């Protein structure tokens, strides 16, 4: 189990948003920073944020606040804190190091991974209120690790297909699992190793529906592993050092990958060609200044095309 760490938190800072795109690339300076500084437990503060997701229905950013064992919600528009949910524990609606998060299409359910399990919630917002109510629907896995179908060992990133199937990076089991929208196991694929159909700590996953494929960040194999969307066969291997979070840039052939370890940056890749993917932008470096990172992990987009990055060790979320 990953040990909890202690940090203190400073006041969040925000920067004037910019809508200028230079040569169709992301600006290297963030438009908004949430939870900057050292870690804390107050609302709007983080203690190692891990995953990020955009809720288009409620126009909010949802963050898994790893060491605080909770979710936090912020306004998409200005980054204002809206509400928080969860506490430390193994009961339904509690978390033990929440990591991956995604929003399920159509249902708008929120799906979260924590230690050795997955939880699914519906979300509602009262009229005239900015706070959201989370209703637990079902869980898979348990507090104890497992390797059977629908059991997990430190699952990390998750995403959903257009029809709502849930794809889980079952990281320490070195495999992927696909669960349907009702929580029924569909299939698992992969095993520990370096072959094309194997993984070493798969970290995150995204789906390109138009290309009928999923892209998995195979962290310790230093590569992106590309599979058919049903997980039946590997299609392509793309070398990339220490890939962590991954997401698809809406309505394009591009993907965005965060890199950890000695890299600590963001790479944008063009996936249009079949066998060779070109890096078309790289930004960020090791550090604490705006636009720098220390352990960037979860990444996602909002409906404006703004990139949201969980800057894990800097205890903040940056928006580009």
CATH topology: Neuraminidase
Assign the CATH class: Mainly Beta
Q: Report the major sheet.
A: 4 strands, antiparallel
Radius of gyration: 18 Å
What does the average pLDDT come to? Answer: 91
Poorly predicted parts: 1-22
Shape annotation = globular
Helical content, roughly? under 10%
CATH homologous superfamily title: TolB, C-terminal domain
> Helical stretch count?
0
Number of strands: 24
Classification by helices and strands: mainly beta
Q: Give the name of the CATH architecture.
A: 6 Propeller
Order of helices and strands: EEEEEEEEEEEEEEEEEEEEEEEE
User: How far apart, in Å, are the first and last alpha carbons?
Assistant: 32 Å
Task: Name the strands of the widest sheet in spatial order.
Answer: 1-24-23-22
What is the percentage of strand-forming residues? 35-45%
Task: List its traits.
four-stranded antiparallel beta sheet; 320 residues; mainly beta; globular; Neuraminidase
Question: Any overview of this molecule?
Answer:
- With 320 residues, this protein is mainly β.
- The protein has one domain: TolB, C-terminal domain (Neuraminidase, 6 Propeller), CATH 2.120.10.
- Helices cover 0% and strands 42% of the residues.
- The protein contains no helices and 24 strands.
- The two termini are 32 Å apart.
């Amino acid at each position: 189990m990953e040990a909890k760490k202690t940090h203190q938190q400073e006041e969040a800072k925000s920067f004037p948003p910019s809508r200028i795109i230079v040569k169709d690339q992301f600006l290297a300076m963030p438009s908004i920073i949430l939870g900057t500084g050292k870690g804390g437990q107050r609302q709007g503060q983080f203690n190692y944020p891990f995953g990020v997701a955009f809720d288009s229905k409620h126009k909010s950013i949802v963050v898994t606040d790893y060491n605080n064992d909770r979710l936090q919600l912020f306004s998409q528009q200005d980054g204002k804190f809206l509400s928080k949910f969860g506490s430390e524990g193994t009961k339904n609606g509690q978390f033990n190091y929440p990591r991956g998060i995604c929003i399920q299409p159509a249902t708008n359910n929120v799906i979260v991974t924590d230690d050795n399990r997955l939880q699914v919630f519906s979300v509602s917002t009262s009229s005239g209120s900015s706070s959201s109510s989370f209703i637990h629907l079902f869980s898979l896995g348990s507090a104890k690790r497992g390797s059977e179908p629908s059991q997990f060992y430190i699952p990390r990133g998750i995403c959903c297909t257009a029809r709502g199937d849930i794809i889980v990076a079952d990281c320490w089991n070195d495999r992927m699992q696909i669960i349907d929208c009702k929580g029924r196991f569909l299939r698992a694929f992969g095993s520990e190793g370096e072959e094309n159909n194997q993984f070493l700590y798969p970290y995150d996953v995204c789906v390109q529906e138009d290309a009928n494929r999923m892209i998995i960040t195979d962290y310790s194999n230093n590569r992106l592993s590309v599979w058919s969307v049903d997980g039946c066969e590997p299609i392509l291997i793309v070398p990339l050092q220490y890939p962590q979070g991954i997401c698809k840039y809406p309505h394009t052939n591009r993907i965005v990958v965060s890199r950890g370890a000695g890299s600590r940056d963001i790479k944008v890749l063009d996936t249009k060609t079949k066998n060779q993917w070109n890096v078309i932008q790289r930004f960020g470096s090791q550090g604490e200044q705006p636009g720098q990172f220390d352990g960037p992990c979860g990444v996602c987009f909002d409906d404006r095309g703004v990139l949201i990055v969980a800057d894990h060790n800097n205890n903040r979320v940056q928006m580009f």
